[in-house]
Amino acid sequence: MKLSVPAVVGLALAGLLAASAPNASAATTLAAPEIPLANVKAHLTQLSSIAAANGGNRAHGRAGYLASVNYVKGKLDAAGFTTTVQQFTASGSTGYNLIADWPGGDSNQVVMSGSHLDSVTAGAGINDNGSGSAAILETALAVSRAQLKPTKHLRFAWWGAEELGLVGSRYYVNNLPTAERAKISGYLNFDMIGSPNPGYFVYDDDPTIEQTFKNYYAGLGIPTEIETEGDGRSDHAPFKNVGVPVGGLFSGADYIKTAAQAQKWGGTSGVAFDRCYHRACDTTANISDTALGRNSNAVAYAVWTLSGAS
Ligand code: TRP
Ligand code: ZN
Description:
Aminopeptidase, binds tryptophan, 310 residues, alpha/beta, 10 helices, binds zinc ion
């Protein structure tokens, strides 16, 4: 494995943190790779084109949603993932969850990452939630490029019908046998991670997952805050409700950035983190490259670290 300079810094950080991280050891934890921002943005461009070709959105029950599933699935199949499309019904239309398993690892210890792939009907949904969908897709592709052999089993999910009330993720959890639920050692959720006036919010749920993301941001010297913009408003909630440890990242929706937040993170106080939240202007222009890049690297860092990648 070729180590870039940032990767070496990451390796050193992983080593320093090994003493406090139960699943990491200096001897076996490899540095997570940098996730190429250009690749993440290329996925957003494709999702934008899919919306444009399908009536301007990628909403549940519309052609743009299934086209989005097929785009992501094609990339994962070509990269060696085992993919499954799970169908459900919501509001009289068929919905789809896409599940991708990376072969290998301990099937009794699953590290799962998920993002909702549906948009609202108002627009293309590029920050909400092309951003999380593209970041976990590119992380999965990085797993394949590395031919990663983690201790734990890796699973990725793209949820349908989140915007109708977490329908797809709830369907998945409700249809997962109790024994399978117990094998999920952690569920990581990424919904809105490239907000144009970003904050850096970490979910305050499972302490190990929370600390993993905090460690990543501490390494960048960037302060984080606890995510409070509506606890339970995304796909981690059904997992949390059945006792699965959860965590995640969020860069803000329609809450307003305070002066103190603008002081520490830059951007504009008195303005929403995402003023195009659930609007037609949630396009490829509605993205902070800086936030998307940092959060994509944080996704990979957490997946590598929590799975005991070696
Ligand atoms: N899930 C919401 C949506 O898709 C956005 C959102 C609001 C959110 N508050 C959150 C996402 C807190 C994660 C965490 O419209
Ligand atoms: Zn969302």
